Amino acid sequence: MSSHINIEKVGENKLREVWSVEDFARRHRICKEEEARLKKLFGDFATKQELLSNAQRPSLLR
Question: How far apart are CA 62 and CA 51, in angstroms?
């Protein structure tokens, strides 16, 4: 039995995790308007990669 771990696959699997859009928005401090936009785009659930790629957060620079 091999105990070799493929690091690329582990990272890829994490990005393919399915998340609740609501949980993602709460964890990443995304406003309700952006949460609604993501729900309109994906429904109630999406992969972590989709959410990270599409979430828009306001700039902290003023």
Answer: 25
